[in-house]
């Protein structure tokens, strides 16, 4: 029975630890899946993929069907055509001008195919592909930026919640010292002013605790806003209470911001190619089947206006056409010059991104190294302050020191606990900063376990 109980207890402990270890990771996954801005970026990437498919479908021939019925005057030609997909065919002239109305009808199938575009279609597809890559890199960059924002907000909440717990511990210490001072005063070992001073300090500590709770609630609201989920419980990840040993490495040259900038440069260059190929000829193959109905007689006039609703003539045709934009060179050259400027601008932005990332990586590495050194000293700082406070408390109980020395020791302990929390938070933020400039959140999450 004892063995079963111990096994069950260990299982529950392991389950609790697993849940605790995954707290921040789980929240980060929920935030990445639910945040509206990231959903919008995913849809923009999907739209860019559809544009590539659309440009590729340009190779397929088009087939347009049309039918029209008109009621118009019987004049020079046999009825009237509406603008559309019907190839016009004129009829014989009438002997005289007349304003009599009659019916006419027409139907057609028009096939159009551009099998050879001399590179125009390929350049459009290539531009769309670079646009798709740009959208994907921008989505990755947006996800990275959001994950960094969410993690930073959670670290702020964790620090504020830890400060609240530290304020509560400090309040409890004042309450304990207040009860102790009452006992000592009642026994005549301490003056009555000690209890009054401890009461004032105890009330002040309660106010500080309430202020800390308010700050933690404010940071939690920011975390919940970035989470994109209102029902999920937000807890404190216990892994943030420990220091980590990190081996900094030179980050790879694949930051999504740099990749996005490179894709934009390639897309602008592809658009220039597309403009240059606009001046090339275009081969168009077409075929048509055409049916015409008219009530107009060859010699003029008509018998029944509704005779035009039935088809009376049929025509078929195939052909090809080569079109060359002869006078478009001047206008196109201006657009090419404009595109050259856009390419140069994109290259300049890319260079600026590289320089900015190099600077950020240098700063992030130094910041992380110093933050790790400070975090390693924080536990020793708290232990020394706690040891000093306990010694002062024992001396105060023995009547060897006055109240001010004990209060100062307690204030030093509270300061040490607060500074320790700040140092730990700065360590995790430095680790997050290094992951952000490296473009890889896995670097942060791996050290979280």
Characterization of this structure:
- One of its GO terms (cellular component) is cell outer membrane.
- One of its GO terms (molecular function) is porin activity.
- It is found in: Cell outer membrane.
- Keywords: Cell outer membrane, Membrane, Signal, Transmembrane, Transmembrane beta strand, Transport.
- This protein is of the alpha+beta class and 449 residues long.
- It has 2 domains: 22-60 and 116-281 and 324-448, Outer membrane efflux proteins (OEP) (Up-down Bundle), CATH 1.20.1600.10; 63-115 and 282-323, no CATH class.
- The chain has helices spanning 2-21, 23-34, 36-56, 120-186, 193-227, 256-277, 329-397, 403-438, 442-448, and strands at residues 62-73, 101-113, 282-294, 313-323.
- The longest helix is centred in the C-terminal third of the chain and has 69 residues, at 329-397.
The secondary structure category is alpha+beta
**CATH superfamily label of the largest domain:** Outer membrane efflux proteins (OEP)
Average pLDDT, to the nearest integer?
A: 83
Q: Report the span from N to C terminus.
A: 34 Å
> What is the C-alpha radius of gyration, as a whole number of Å?
40 Å
What's the story with the biggest beta sheet?
A: 4 strands, antiparallel
Portion of residues within helices: 55-70%
- CATH T-level fold name of the largest domain: Outer membrane efflux proteins (OEP)
User: What's the CATH first level of the largest domain?
Assistant: Mainly Alpha
CATH architecture descriptor name of the largest domain: Up-down Bundle
Q: Give helix and strand order, one letter per element, not per position.
A: HHHEEHHHEEHHH
């Amino acid at each position: 029975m004892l063995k079963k109980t111990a096994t069950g207890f260990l299982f529950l402990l392991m389950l609790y630890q697993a849940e605790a270890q995954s707290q921040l990771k789980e929240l980060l996954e929920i935030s990445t899946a639910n945040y509206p801005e990231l959903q919008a970026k995913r849809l923009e990437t999907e739209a860019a993929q559809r544009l590539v498919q659309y440009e590729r479908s340009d190779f397929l021939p088009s087939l347009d069907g049309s039918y029209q019925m008109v009621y118009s005057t019987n004049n020079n030609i046999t009825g009237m055509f509406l603008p559309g997909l019907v190839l016009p065919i004129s009829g014989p002239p009438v002997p005289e001008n007349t304003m009599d109305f009659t019916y006419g009808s027409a139907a057609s199938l028009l096939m159009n195919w551009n099998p050879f575009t001399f590179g125009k279609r390929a350049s459009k597809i290539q531009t769309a592909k670079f646009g798709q890559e740009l959208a994907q890199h921008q989505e990755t960059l947006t996800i990275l930026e959001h994950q960094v924002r969410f993690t930073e907000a959670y670290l702020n909440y964790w620090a504020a919640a830890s400060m609240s717990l530290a304020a509560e511990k400090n309040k409890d210490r004042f309450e304990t010292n207040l009860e102790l001072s009452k006992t000592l005063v009642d026994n005549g070992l301490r003056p009555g002013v000690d209890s009054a001073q401890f009461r004032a300090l105890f009330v002040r500590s309660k106010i500080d605790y309430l202020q800390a709770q308010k700050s933690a609630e404010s940071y939690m609201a920011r975390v919940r806003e970035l989470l994109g989920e209102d029902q999920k419980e937000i807890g404190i990840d216990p892994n943030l209470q420990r220091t980590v040993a990190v081996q900094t490495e030179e980050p790879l040259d694949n930051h999504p911001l740099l990749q996005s900038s490179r894709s934009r440069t390639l897309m602008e260059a592809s658009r220039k190619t597309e403009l240059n190929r606009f001046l090339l000829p275009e081969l168009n193959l077409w075929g048509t089947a055409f049916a015409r109905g008219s009530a107009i007689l060859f010699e003029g006039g008509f018998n029944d206006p509704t005779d035009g609703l039935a088809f009376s003539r049929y025509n078929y045709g195939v052909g090809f056409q080569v079109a060359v934009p002869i006078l478009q060179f001047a206008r196109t050259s201006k657009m090419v010059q404009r595109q050259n400027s856009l390419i140069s601008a994109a290259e300049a932005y890319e260079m600026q991104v590289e320089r900015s990332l190099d600077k950020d990586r240098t700063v992030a590495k130094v910041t992380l190294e110093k933050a790790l050194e400070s975090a390693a000293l924080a536990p020793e700082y708290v232990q020394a302050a706690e040891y000093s406070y306990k010694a002062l408390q024992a001396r105060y109980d023995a009547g060897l020191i006055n109240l001010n020395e004990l209060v100062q020791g307690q204030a030093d302990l509270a300061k040490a606990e607060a500074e320790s929390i700040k140092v730990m938070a700065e360590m995790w933020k430095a680790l997050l900063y290094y992951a952000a400039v490296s473009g890889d959140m896995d670097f942060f999450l791996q050290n979280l376990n």
